[in-house]
Structures are given as structure tokens and as C-alpha cells.
């Protein structure tokens, strides 16, 4: 009996993969984000390979992909994508400074976990524009372009767990100020279009956190090659403001944070909109 238990344990240990298996190729995921950017540029989703049973949301509300933001042709100034080969998902940040209607858009895309042939199962988009908390597309573009999100050498890449724990620590700090967040030094926060740093070597992200703000319903996209993790969640309560935080880690510490919050100042007079 004992020996059969121990051989079962041995078998289980052998079956546990030493590293997480990639379920989708990076080539397939890059094709997905390229097609997404092309679709938004053209205002035409026909090239996206969105499943007929796929789920589409805008600002966390069910919406029609055929008539939503993707049906508008936008002049994109900057597109930044990350790719999660383990979970077959992607995240893209789009910046549009076109003065007729500036936008900063964040989108998570999910394929079936086996990857399939690239048919998209889910698209979740956050659309921020004038009046949203700290919105300033010109500022977002300016700071985004000054940052360096280089590919991290394989032997220096952080694990998925390290990336996720760092993002969770940061988000948990808004309810528990005793949480220790692993910050890199320097570190900068791009919140809407506002930068906490100056782009210099002395920038710090440890500039204080408000408390009493739960970040709920978190959905992650993790890209180890770039030390990047995106989290979408409700900011402040179970059905509160749709929010996206994009983190970049270097040497296991948070180097950059980009935030996008769907929160019109007029909807919530107490929001610190005039920061
Ligand atoms: C779209 O997805 C289907 C199902 O996975 C796949 O067979 C097809 O090759 C894909 N089409 C394109 C153009 O990628
Ligand atoms: C937006 O950001 C740009 C670049 O940082 C800055 O010059 C501009 O004053 C900002 N606009 C507003 C309304 O804050």
C-alpha cells in the first residue's frame, strides 16, 4: 500500500511539467495583435477572425463588435502589444491623438486555450477619451514613446508567478497599505496622461497609495519575454469603473505602470479629476 502510494507520488511528480507549456505560438499571437491594430485602423473587423460565438465587451458591457469602436477607422499614433503564449491571450494599448477625437484604448483578446487556428473567442476593450480620469492622449503618447520596453534576455526573465505576484501586490496595496510592493528603482507611473516621474534615474513609484479601494474581478495577460503583465478589473468595487493596469518588471521589480480608467468626472463629482 505504502509503496503504491509512493509510486503514485513519483508518477505525479514526473507528470508535473517543470515549466509551463506554451499553448499558442508567439507567431499566432502576433498575427492576432497585428490584425487587431489593422482592424481598428481600417474600421473593419472582417479580417479579425472573430468567432461567431465570440464574446465582445466595451467598458465591461456586452456590445456588438460590428458597431462598436472597431467599426470606426482611427489614426493610431502608437500601438503596444504583449502576448501570453501560455494562456493564448494578448493585450494592446492604442493611443490616438487625432484632435477630432483623441482616444487611449486597451484591449485584451483571448483565443481558445489550445490556440486553434486563431479564431478569437473574446475581446474586452476599454475605451477612454476626453473627460475620463486623468485622460490626456498627448501625454500618454509622449511618455509611452520615451520608455524602453526592451526584450529581456532569457536568463534574466522573471517567472509568470513573479510577474503576477508583483501586479497583485501593487493592486492589493489599495486595500492593505502594509503590503510590500517590489518596486524597481527607477520606476514611473503613467496614470492616464500624467507621469509620476521625470523620465530620469531618480523616478520612484513609491509615492503613496490611497486606501479603501478594492480592485476586483482581475483578468491577466502575462508576457515573460517583456516582463509585462496587464490586469483588467473593476476599480473600487464589484461593478465600479473598468480599469486596466499594464506593468513592466525588470529584475523582479516594477519599472513602469500604465493605467487607464473609465470614469467620467461628471459621473462622480468626488473623483480627483483635476489632478
Ligand atoms: C480563423 O480561425 C479558424 C478556426 O480556428 C481557422 O481555421 C482559420 O484558418 C482562421 N482564419 C484565418 C484567416 O486566420
Ligand atoms: C497633456 O500632456 C501634454 C504632454 O505632456 C502637455 O503638454 C499638455 O499640457 C497636457 N494637457 C493637459 C490638458 O493637461
Automatic annotation (TrEMBL):
Superkingdom: Eukaryota
Signal peptide: 1-22
Segments forming domain DUF8021: 156-261
UniProtKB keywords: Signal
Protein name: DUF8021 domain-containing protein
Organism: Coprinopsis marcescibilis
Amino acid at each position: 500500500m505504502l509503496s503504491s502510494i509512493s509510486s503514485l507520488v513519483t508518477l505525479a511528480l514526473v507528470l508535473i511539467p517543470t515549466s509551463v507549456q506554451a499553448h499558442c505560438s508567439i507567431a499566432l499571437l502576433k498575427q492576432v495583435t497585428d490584425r487587431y491594430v489593422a482592424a481598428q485602423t481600417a474600421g473593419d473587423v472582417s479580417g479579425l477572425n472573430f468567432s461567431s460565438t465570440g464574446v465582445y465587451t466595451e467598458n465591461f458591457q456586452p456590445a456588438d463588435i460590428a458597431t462598436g469602436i472597431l467599426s470606426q477607422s482611427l489614426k493610431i499614433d502608437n500601438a503596444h502589444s504583449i502576448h501570453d503564449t501560455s494562456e493564448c491571450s494578448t493585450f494592446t494599448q492604442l493611443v490616438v491623438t487625432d484632435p477630432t477625437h483623441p482616444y487611449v484604448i486597451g484591449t485584451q483578446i483571448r483565443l481558445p486555450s489550445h490556440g486553434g487556428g486563431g479564431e478569437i473567442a473574446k475581446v474586452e476593450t476599454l475605451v477612454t477619451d476626453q473627460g475620463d480620469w486623468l485622460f490626456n492622449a498627448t501625454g500618454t503618447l509622449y511618455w509611452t514613446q520615451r520608455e524602453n520596453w526592451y526584450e529581456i534576455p532569457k536568463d534574466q526573465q522573471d517567472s509568470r508567478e513573479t510577474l503576477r505576484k508583483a501586479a497583485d501586490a501593487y493592486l492589493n496595496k489599495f486595500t492593505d497599505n502594509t503590503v510590500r510592493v517590489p518596486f524597481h528603482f527607477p520606476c514611473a507611473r503613467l496614470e492616464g496622461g500624467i507621469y509620476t516621474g521625470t523620465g530620469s534615474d531618480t523616478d520612484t513609484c513609491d509615492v503613496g497609495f490611497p486606501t479603501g479601494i478594492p480592485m476586483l474581478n482581475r483578468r491577466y495577460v502575462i508576457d515573460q519575454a517583456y516582463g509585462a503583465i496587464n490586469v483588467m478589473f473593476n476599480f473600487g468595487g464589484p461593478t465600479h469603473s473598468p480599469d486596466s493596469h499594464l506593468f513592466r518588471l525588470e529584475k523582479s521589480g516594477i519599472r513602469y505602470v500604465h493605467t487607464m480608467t473609465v470614469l467620467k468626472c461628471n459621473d462622480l463629482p468626488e473623483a480627483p479629476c483635476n489632478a
